[in-house]
């Protein structure tokens, strides 16, 4: 019995020793590979950057070992991608990435581990490898889980202006934050196509309108304005909020609809916009809204009064002579409070 126990203990000890040796050798091999890659990277860094920037016509020699060459190229292009200054630099990066990485990335998308596939998708986007658009699209439609691989595949397709992305946005539910991620990546022509789509769900429309307001590109302003009377409340509110960010409305008369609205958020945004644009015709209405039943509306109205050309006089009148107690209190707060444009 003792012999059996000793034999089993000895076997376990031997297995542990073998495992430790294996782990040690693997770690040493990994360190040697890393050192080899870093050495090769530093050797080619400056000459290759000169080649990529067009300062040199001669392409430097890269490591003969494929794995080392791929890792060196990924490290080179990652640094280069963050410092691109023009279309020529972009094109040279794309050509180089296609030459050394495209076939490897195709293989990874088909056979690589989850982590390898996700890293590859990030590199494809960073290096603008649009020659792999079809491969990424095929890969996307094989995915079963809505995880980071799924999301990064969509980001890549958005970057490349994939036409089917519009259909996906019409059918799938995404968070507003992720929708904005996709919009930031889309080419201008894809955004124009998206604006023409009538069957978009509310989440996509509100995401678009919010994104347009944040970026402030005036080519999207008509799209925002046409939605301020949309039947959906959230779309209307996002449109009004975006107009506050644009600091513009084509027809000041249309504000009266919102200043008299039964929806408190519309009254608030209407007041904000009237103040931002210093629409003195609405001073009387804003004075009335200073006594609104909703705190946010009262604040927006008093802030708007303060932004008028004679704002200090109006605010003093509200603080001292308004018939509503809450309006007087809010006006007094605004007299001592530094206010900016509310978004």
Describe this structure in words.
- Helix 15 packs antiparallel against helix 16 and helix 16 crosses helix 18.
- The chain has helices spanning 2-52, 66-81, 87-111, 114-126, 133-140, 148-159, 164-171, 176-185, 188-196, 202-215, 221-225, 233-246, 255-259, 264-276, 283-289, 295-307, 311-321, 325-336.
- The mean pLDDT is 88.
- The protein has 18 helices and no strands.
- Helices cover 72% and strands 0% of the residues.
- It is mostly helical and 343 residues long.
- It has 3 domains: 41-50 and 66-160, no CATH class; 183-250, Leucine-rich Repeat Variant (Alpha Horseshoe); 251-343, Leucine-rich Repeat Variant.
- InterPro entries: ARM-like (IPR011989), ARM-type_fold (IPR016024), HEAT (IPR000357).
- Keywords: Membrane, Repeat, Transmembrane, Transmembrane helix.
Strand content: under 5%
The largest sheet is: none
Query: Averaging pLDDT over every residue, what do you get?
Result: 88
Distance linking N and C termini: 80 Å
Shape: elongated
Helix tally equals 18
Q: What is the tally of beta strands?
A: 0
Residue share in helices? over 70%
Whole-number total of structural domains? 3
Instruction: Characterize the quaternary organization of these chains.
Output: single chain
